[in-house]
Amino acid sequence: MKSAPFTLSTPVNLEEALASFREGGMYYKLIAGSQSLGPMLNLRLSQPDNLISLRNLPDLREVTDVGDSIFIGAAITHAEIEDKKILDPSRGLMASVAANIAYRAVRNFGTIGGSLAHADPASDWVNLMQLLDAKFLIVGPNGKREVTSNDFMQAAFTTCLKEDEILLGVKIRKLSGQAKFAYFKFCRKVGEFAEAIGGVVIDPELGIKRAIIGATAGTPFLIKNIDAVISGQTNAMNEALIEAGCNDDYEYQMHKTALERALTQATL
Ligand SMILES: Cc1cc2nc3c(=O)[nH]c(=O)nc-3n(C[C@H](O)[C@H](O)[C@H](O)COP(=O)(O)OP(=O)(O)OC[C@H]3O[C@@H](n4cnc5c(N)ncnc54)[C@H](O)[C@@H]3O)c2cc1C
Q1: Quick check: pTM over 0.85?
Q2: Residues having CB within 6 Å of any atom of ligand 1
Q3: Quick one: 152 and 196 in the same domain?
């Protein structure tokens, strides 16, 4: 099947991209690496009149050191992160996660911003950004705004982005040399989306202790009773898994094991 007909806008800066939304009477869709939207167009699940390409926008290709954090532009590809071509706030964690997204052809085109905006609960960046407590920078007709990872993704395939807004990128705090972390992903074969994700980051110097249960039916679940879970209290882990929505036995066991493995790796 081929996509329904559409026109393509190729703005060269943010102003032009935002202006594209103002041409009334059309259904617009932004396109970055096309790795998720492309199949949806071909299956006619999405039938925009006009695609606005984000590939040539310099603001979305920026990576900057902003003091205690690094800003990573939305159009940075998975491959650029895997190849360590950009500043890394995560001491190698992002590169290792990127290396296990799909396969190289997808990673060459797919972008961090596209993954986050698409908001698949099994997406690696969706889960890692919650683990790293990233801030999301968004631009729209009324200027820029910043939201937390808690507020960005609202449900499966649903974010706080409005139709005329663009995700500029994410700001991620730099982990210290004392940080310990792990990200464990279960998938049936390399290149597939995760069936279960467990992630842990502990950074005593920055006072960070976070763990997530990911690839559930909804948003990544940030564990609240973190000290009890890190210290191995079975009840606390069970409660977190139930609260995260892991109700049937298979799902429960997959997510429990993913979390346990991440905890073991991070606390070795
Ligand atoms: C075979 C295959 C296997 C995959 N496996 C994995 C995997 O294991 N893990 C994983 O995490 N992902 C996986 N993916 C998804 C892949 O990571 C995609 O690259 C990603 O989901 C979308 O990024 P994109 O740049 O291609 O976005 P696009 O497909 O171009 O866009 C996706 C959506 O985001 C919107 N969008 C894009 N950029 C912006 C922006 N800056 N602001 C606002 N909205 C925007 C678009 O309008 C669209 O709705 C896989 C994909 C394929 C095809």
Answers
A1: yes
A2: 29-37, 54, 60, 74, 101-102, 106, 109-111, 113-115, 117-118, 123-125, 161, 166-167, 191-193
A3: no
